[in-house]
Design brief:
Blueprint lengths: L5 H9 L9 H11 L5 E5 L5 E6 L9 E6 L4 E3 L11 E3 L6 H9 L3 E4 L2 E4 L4 E2 L3 E4 L2 H20 L4 E7 L7 H8 L8 E8 L12 E5 L7 H14 L4 E4 L6 H7 L4 E7 L15 E4 H15 L11 H11 L1 H8 L4
Parallel strand pairs: 3-10, 3-11, 11-14, 12-13
Antiparallel strand pairs: 1-2, 2-10, 4-5, 4-7, 6-7, 8-9, 9-15, 12-14
Length: 335
């Protein structure tokens, strides 16, 4: 059976309804897409995150990367224990005014499916643009799925892990639970793959954004350097910015002691909110997504010298030792 192409993956994932704590439709679709992928093993952790490992041969990138995207998106859920038909709670909509939510509901933009309800927008995928209710962060999930399928198709010898997490929109809960019982080894690096509002010089269509950090924290400098070096060596157009309009799962993993970095695809209409405060579809640019997938394939198939070998302290101390003679000679001339 032929592997699904990128457009097919996008349509299959983006049409799935999802909300914080109700990611089962998305998780099932990802499992369906990867179940027959060579060299890939899937499992679920106790929190319900979906974990995947691609392992082919002994060769692997250094470090071993853990690609992470979350499966939820702001949406309506039934309150726990509620029996009322029209009782809903909107979860994960940080920054979305209650007035905008209420107006959209009155206009009939809400679509109910079981215990959740989402905004009712179609999925549109063209050669230039991807538009849907929940680009954040099903686009990140699609990028990981496509990367794994491409690694298998090319029979690349490497090891790379992935985590598809739950409940990011209410405070990175899935990533935090994953980091508490980290299953991937101390030498691995957590790489958050997000869609984010472009700020501080980032632009849509300018390539994926290698994040210096987010609103809460600054990310691992060596990991960021490896991402930038890989992009330069492969001729992949990227941006490097501090995206501080929000926070991503790299902050949660880093706070738990895991080396972390982040890449974002610039996102239009973040959390379905337009510049005029209307509820509308989210969108990203196709070329940004394709560049991200190309970068991920190169990243996980390459051994990178430096990361994990010498810390900045070790580098400076080594230089101090190398130049000890010059330091002593020059210092004698100071008065």
């Amino acid at each position: 059976m032929a592997s699904p192409n990128l457009n097919n993956i996008l349509k299959r994932l983006l049409k799935q309804p999802t909300a914080p704590f109700h990611e089962y439709h998305v998780r099932a679709e990802i499992e369906s897409l990867l179940k027959d992928c060579r060299h890939v093993k899937l499992k679920r952790d106790k929190f319900g995150n979906l974990l995947a490992t691609y392992k082919n041969g002994k060769a692997k990138s250094k470090p071993t990367w853990v690609l992470c995207s979350h499966m939820d998106h702001p949406g309506f859920v039934k309150p726990a224990g509620s029996t009322k038909r029209d009782e809903w709670e909107f979860l994960g909509g940080g920054g979305v005014p209650q007035e905008s939510i209420e107006t959209a509901v009155k206009k009939g933009l809400r679509k109910v499916k079981g215990q959740i309800a989402t905004w009712n927008f179609p999925v549109n995928v063209t050669n230039s643009r991807i538009e849907a209710t929940a680009c954040d962060d099903l686009i990140g999930c699609a990028a990981i799925v496509m990367t794994f399928l491409e690694l298998a198709r090319l029979n690349i010898q490497t090891t790379v892990h992935a985590a598809f997490t739950r409940a990011e929109e209410v405070g990175w809960l899935g990533a935090w639970q994953l980091a508490q019982k980290w299953p991937f080894g101390k030498d691995s690096v957590f790489l958050s793959l997000e869609t984010s509002r472009p700020v501080n010089g980032a632009v849509m269509g300018g390539g994926p954004v290698i994040r210096v950090g987010d609103r809460v924290s600054i990310f691992d400098s060596e990991a960021v350097a490896v991402l930038m070096t890989t992009a330069k060596e492969q001729g992949i157009r990227v941006q490097r910015c501090l995206l501080d309009a929000g926070a991503c799962e790299a902050t949660a993993a880093q706070a738990a002691g895991i080396r972390s970095a982040g890449i974002s695809i610039p996102l239009g209409n973040y959390h379905n909110l337009s510049d005029t405060r209307q509820i509308v579809p989210e969108y990203v640019m196709m070329d940004d997504l394709k560049s991200l997938i190309t970068l991920l394939k190169a990243l996980v198939a390459t051994k990178h010298d430096g990361i994990g070998e010498r810390t900045i302290r070790e580098r400076v101390e080594m230089r101090m030792s190398e130049h000890a003679g010059h330091f002593a000679a020059g210092t004698k001339l100071f008065k």
